[in-house]
Amino acid sequence: MTDRAGLRGDCEQCFGLCCVALPFAASADFAIDKEAGKPCPNLRGDHRCGIHARLRTEGFTGCTVYDCFGAGQKVSQVTFGGRDRRTGSREDARRMADVFPVVRQLHELLWYLTEARALPAARPVHADLGRALEQTEALTRQTPEELGRLDVGAHRQEVNVLLLRTSELARAGIPGKKKNRRGADLMGARLGGADLRGANLRGTYLIAADLTGADLRGADLIGADLRDADLTDADLTDAFFLTQPQLNAARGSAGTRLPQSVTRPAHWTARL
Q: What are the tens digits of pLDDT across the range 111-140?
């Protein structure tokens, strides 16, 4: 794994697994209730969404912010060798739904590890990161039975030790006093123009926070909840461990500066 080409969802190579395996409840994000393992009523016979272009207006905003990190095509084409969940056995369909969330977690870890391995400041742990990267990739290629038995939580904890060390090394080179708001409840906080360079925002609740014009360069954003956070004109250049789903859940503008690893959400452009 030298880049992230295989860590981006490719719906053309997937059997609509996120539309089947995952549950959701009627809320601001979803218009209806759906049980895990039950196909969404909007899923067509060709594994495509029947309302893809209208998801937000139809009340399925949650679908527009989701990303599987490439787990969908891995499970569809590698784990199950291209066997369609509908034409295969009932047991295959059940296992596919069970395995998909596990591989999705592993692929998210691959995203973080790939980024960490590319950071020059993390050179002291590059060898360890490389080994963790290879081990995690190997886990994604296990059989359905092996993946079903995998303690993915324990593996996440092992990888997180390295990611924490990477964060410390990367932020150490950023000048000035760095804020530590790890896991803090900053829901709705007024942080417009705040200096958050090199801040530790791991797991921070920033739901609906005002971050307009905030300086988030070099901040650690792993697991930060950015739902409905306003990133208008904020600077996230070189912020790390930021994922596309986090960004998709936020609000922003043409003036929001982003790391090269992510893309500007389409709904941001639609607001302009």
A: 999 999 999 999 999 999 999 999 999 999
